[in-house]
Amino acid sequence: MQCIDLFSKRIRVKSKKHRKAVFEESNKTPLKPVITSMNGKRLSLIKQKGRVGKSSSKTLKKSYTILMVANNAKYQQALVFFLTHCNNIHLGITKLNKLFYYLDFISYRDQGKSVTGETYVRLPKGPVAKTLESKQIDNAMNSGLISHTETTSEKYGIRHVYKPLVKPDMTVFNEYEQELLKSVCAYFAEWPTNKMIAQTHTEAPWVFSTPSKELDYSLANDIEILSQEEVTA
Known about the structure:
Order of helices and strands: EEHEEHHEEHEEHHHH
Structural class: alpha+beta
Distance between the termini: 49 Å
Low-confidence stretches: 1-14, 25-65
Helix content: 25-40%
Strand content: 15-25%
Number of strands: 8
Number of helices: 8
Mean pLDDT: 78
Shape: globular
Strand order of the largest sheet: 2-1-4-3
Number of domains: 2
């Protein structure tokens, strides 16, 4: 069977000629994702009509990559929610990353999809949301949803302080997501950042990831904090 592989967030090809053929054909016929072999852990895209390109299968060491598409509306409103309801002395940018990590990975564990569609990367201080600082916070400020100031203290040094300027719009979330937001905020509100970092270091998504590489959502079942029963109780 001839196929092209899906790995990470793009179609991987081996040559310029192959790349040209793939893109020409993809404009004609939609690609349909198919897991061709779970035992071999090979994830491929097969043409619904015809065959394209040469076989370029990729064997993964632990599991296949799960693609995420960002939901910016939910991302922005979740940010406003956390800044509204979890904003105390413990909340800095590092802890904010962890709140989003638990929001998305617990949702994936229970519902099979994340809330924001964010991708998380393994760094020494635990999972980090890939676009939180580089995109989402700036977008929220530009949209007038949050404000940003810097403070300096002997204990924390220079610290970025974010505050909500509006109330979170909860209508963008379904019922489960609303309850999960409340549960994550209530559960971790008094946790200092170092405690959250240590907790993420005990869970499979971080343990079985490669430094500076993306975390695998399919390992979310290892997270025992906030069971689905607790979230929806």
